[in-house]
UniProtKB/TrEMBL annotation:
NCBIfam families per record: P_ylase (TIGR02093)
Protein name: Alpha-1,4 glucan phosphorylase
Superkingdom of the organism of origin: Bacteria
Cofactor(s) the protein needs: pyridoxal 5'-phosphate
Cited InterPro entries: Glycg_phsphrylas, Glyco_trans_35, Pyridoxal_P_attach_site
Keywords on record: Carbohydrate metabolism, Glycosyltransferase, Pyridoxal phosphate, Transferase
Family according to the record: Belongs to the glycogen phosphorylase family.
Task of the protein: Allosteric enzyme that catalyzes the rate-limiting step in glycogen catabolism, the phosphorolytic cleavage of glycogen to produce glucose-1-phosphate, and plays a central role in maintaining cellular and organismal glucose homeostasis. Phosphorylase is an important allosteric enzyme in carbohydrate metabolism. Enzymes from different sources differ in their regulatory mechanisms and in their natural substrates. However, all known phosphorylases share catalytic and structural properties.
Entry EC no(s): 2.4.1.1
A Pfam entry, by short name: Phosphorylase
SUPFAM superfamilies: UDP-Glycosyltransferase/glycogen phosphorylase
Length: 797
């Protein structure tokens, strides 16, 4: 049965049935949580039918499959996704209303599955949804972290981290698969037997599989996200227990579980932690075994593996897949080493997400030899084989006693991709310049994208309705159809409706702010939004400096006709990243002073919303007017938030960095507030010895803002609190905050002037929506399918 031929009455019956027979609760006593689980199970029933249909089609056709290996899948809430993609909104809405429940309240009751840090993890989640929408048979493989990204709150303006325990509630979307559990070993030694290397790992854990179905648009196809959970090989030590050593008896279990206990709260600096390497090997090894098991069950000859498996490495985190696959083919299945390397390379491809040198993982050879002794040997052999392929032109995989995971991923992949045009060019010129010279056809570009189902259709129902009324529904899985809106942009009726949708979104947001955070904002003000991880290269401090400078100007001249503005920040700082945490503290301190200023606060407010996550982004982006994408050029590989804002009609104020470049090319220079140095100019500027001082001298606004901060205007109880921040900015200023300040200030004034003229503003906003259709992750996935994977879509029955 088609999911959407279901009636609201069927849906209601199904909800009640699950409430009674799964949850054992009668309607009179059910909590919101119980209703949400009952609804999830009712929706899941429909989803499972479609999932089986897709799986049957795949088993029958035995096509090449895509395997997406990622340490992070930032999937957020799943219930609404499933309802929307199965087209069950009406039935679910009516059924819940019949039961006296509010649809939104039930949806919002679901905790966010925060199994990722930021862009990299969210990209993986968008890709899973697009793969399912397109009908490309695929598996996502990752780790089922017990604790996702930490929960953030503020105490006296400082970030506090608390564990996020999303699994403490029943998770309705997963199925444990006991039949496919794998044993994963670490440590031990390598011996020789009959001319073959035999690795006997000393320590072993079980990788238990948990499957979540991922459903595509209209339920046409569904794939599986398989997450591994670490469990002990032997439950607990009964002998020790009987001796009264209770803690010791439980030790093996605790040890094993640490592997899938927490998500590392950092995606831009390498973590020199043994546990991190264990996590990486754990999920990569389990996934590769699973892939080979499936391949062998279909009876293929090993040399044909690349015809059946496209294995994508999301960043270097699963880069150990190269040596591990060689080991599985060579040591365990007897394939000749050269052939094993070539076969593995035929399957593997690697996506690079950052040029920041500190984020390209390196592991000490000592640690690698101790944890994965056979892999260390194989890395040496791969290194030699690679050198033999390219006589006289050596790029080593090891340096200064460390193994370079970026180089290993590159060497073992048949394709390597960057995530925006600029980033891919810079990859060729910088981090992988030598390898690119050796393999000029290996690097390709696949500019990131976002799924329109979640980031427009679900997140922004008002705008979606207007779009569908204007051009029909085809845009939902063919986002470039948005260009048909172009004809309506000059129609005042359309622009009015467009403006109305934005206004109502802003009103909703203002109401939510008042109710949830106790803050009042004027929905007519310019909502200026910067939401993303806190990092120096993303330059939240540039934004807050401009805010302070603006505050000073308004104070000096309150009657000058200022455009009311609300600066909204949200984002987490890695717990160990001290400077980023000081930036958070500074923004909160500035907010406290500015929001209490009777003269300026009607024109300028500052908010830092705690605990930024996918759900908050879904709420905030449709209500935004201006999208802050102000990284130092050359540092942000792509960005994907920038795409979500553009689609939802918030023009960018930004630098020529990452995908901003392509966004501006498409939406038009008039509809993008460009400022700042280019990546090349950044390099040149950095070479000027006192660039920061020069910039400060040239712009009294900047000097004044820095002075106010350093004199304690925002930290009266501790005047020197921001001495470090100010010293950084006036000294080395590596990210060139000062040098870009004046250009940023000017761009902000241009944005304000445009905003003051609603006709001009809404036209610009609508141009962003109409021209951002290319940034669908469906387009990105099609690119991977043709350029990298060589796979084609299948249809379910
Ligand atoms: C990275 C980059 C972002 C990029 C994302 C997805 O920093 O610029 O958009 O991956 O490719 N670590 C990240 O979030």
């Amino acid at each position: 049965m088609e999911a959407y031929s279901l009636t609201a009455a069927d849906m209601r019956d199904s909800i009640l049935r699950h409430l009674a027979y799964e949850l054992g609760t009668d309607p009179g006593h059910a909590t919101l949580h119980d209703w949400r689980i009952a609804l999830s199970l009712a929706v899941r029933d429909r989803l499972v039918d479609r999932w089986f249909a897709a799986n049957r089609a795949t088993r029958a056709a035995q096509p090449k499959r895509v395997y997406y290996l990622s340490m992070e899948f930032l999937i957020g809430r799943l219930l609404e996704d499933a309802i929307v993609n199965l087209r069950l909104e009406e039935q679910a809405g009516t059924a819940l209303a019949d039961l006296g429940l509010d649809f939104d309240a039930v949806i919002q009751n679901e905790p966010d599955a925060a199994l990722g840090n930021g862009g990299l993890g969210r990209l993986a989640a968008c890709f899973m949804e697009s793969l399912a929408t397109i009908g490309c048979p695929a598996f996502g493989y990752g780790i089922r972290y017990e604790n996702g990204l930490f929960r953030q709150s503020f105490q006296d303006g400082r970030q506090i981290e608390e564990p996020e325990d999303w699994l403490s509630q029943f998770h309705a979307w997963e199925f444990e698969r006991r039949d496919v559990a794998q044993e994963i070993r670490f440590g031990g030694e390598v011996t020789q037997k009959d001319g073959r290397a035999v690795w006997t790992g000393a320590e072993a854990v079980i990788a238990a599989a948990f499957d979540t179905p991922i459903i595509g648009w209209k339920g046409r196809w569904a794939n599986t996200l398989r997450l591994w959970s670490a469990q002990p090989l032997h439950g607990f030590d009964l002998a020790r227990f009987n001796r009264g050593e209770y803690a010791a008896a439980a030790e093996p279990e605790a040890l094993a579980r640490t592997i899938s206990r927490v998500l590392y709260p950092d995606d831009t600096t390498g973590q020199g932690k043994e546990l991190r390497l264990k996590q990486e090997y754990f999920f990569t090894a389990a996934s590769l075994r699973d892939i080979l098991r499936r391949f062998e069950a279909e009876g293929g000859a090993l040399a044909d593996l690349p015809k059946k498996a496209a294995i994508q490495l999301n960043d270097t985190h699963p880069a150990i897949a190269g040596p591990e696959l060689v080991r599985l083919l060579h040591d365990e299945r007897g394939m000749a080493l050269d052939e094993a390397i070539a076969t593995a390379r035929g399957c593997l491809s690697y996506t690079n997400h950052t040029l920041m040198p500190e984020a390209l993982e390196r592991w000490s050879e000592d640690l690698m030899s101790q944890l994965l002794p056979r892999h260390m040997q194989l890395i040496e052999r791969i290194d030699e084989a690679h050198a033999a392929e390219m006589p006289g032109r050596r790029v080593t995989l090891r340096e200064n006693g460390e193994v370079k995971m970026g180089e290993i991923a590159f060497t073992m992949a048949h394709k390597v991709n960057g995530v925006s045009a600029l980033h891919t060019d810079l990859m060729k010129e910088t981090v992988f310049a030598d390898l690119h010279r050796l393999h000029p056809d290996r690097i390709v570009n696949e500019t990131n994208g976002v799924t329109p189902r979640r980031w427009l259709l679900s997140a922004n129902p008002r705008l979606s309705r207007l779009i569908t009324e204007t051009i029909g529904e085809g845009w939902v899985d063919d986002l470039e159809q948005l260009d048909r809106l172009e004809a309506s942009i000059s129609d005042p009726g359309f622009l009015d409706a467009y403006a109305k949708a934005k206004r109502e979104n802003k009103q909703d947001f203002a109401e939510w702010l008042a109710a949830e955070q106790g803050v009042r904002v004027d929905p007519e003000a310019l909502f200026d939004v910067q939401i993303k991880r806190i990092h120096e290269y993303k330059r939240q401090h540039l934004n807050i400096l401009e805010t302070v400078a603006l505050w000073r100007e308004i104070k000096a001249n309150p009657g000058a006709g200022w455009v009311p503005r609300v600066k909204i920040f949200a984002g987490k700082a890695a717990p160990g990243y001290v400077f980023a945490k000081e930036i958070i503290h500074l923004i909160n301190d500035v907010a406290e002073v500015l929001n209490a200023d009777p003269v300026t606060s009607p024109y300028l407010k500052v908010l830092f919303l705690p605990n930024y996550n996918v759900s908050l982004a879904e709420r905030l982006i449709p209500a935004a007017d201006l999208s802050e994408q102000i990284s130092t050029a050359g540092k942000e590989a792509s960005g994907t938030g920038n795409m979500k804002f553009a689609l939802n009609g918030a023009p960018t104020i930004g630098t020529l960095d990452g995908a901003n470049v392509e966004i501006r090319d498409r939406v038009g220079a008039r509809n993008f507030f460009l400022f700042g140095m280019t990546a090349q100019e950044v390099e040149a500027r950095r070479a000027v010895p006192d660039h920061a001082r020069q910039a400060i001298q040239a712009d009294p606004r900047l000097g004044g803002a820095l002075k106010a901060i350093s004199q304690g205007a925002f930290s009266p109880s501790d005047k020197h609190r921001y001495r470090g921040v100010v010293a950084n900015l006036t000294g080395q200023d590596y990210f060139l905050v000062c040098s870009d300040f004046t250009a940023y200030w000017d761009a902000q004034r241009r944005a304000e002037a445009a905003f003051a003229d609603p006709a001009v503003w809404h036209r610009g906003a609508a141009c962003n929506t109409a021209r951002a259709g290319w940034f669908s992750s469906d387009r990105t996935i099609r690119g991977y399918m043709t350029d990298i994977w060589g796979t084609v879509p299948l249809a379910a029955e």
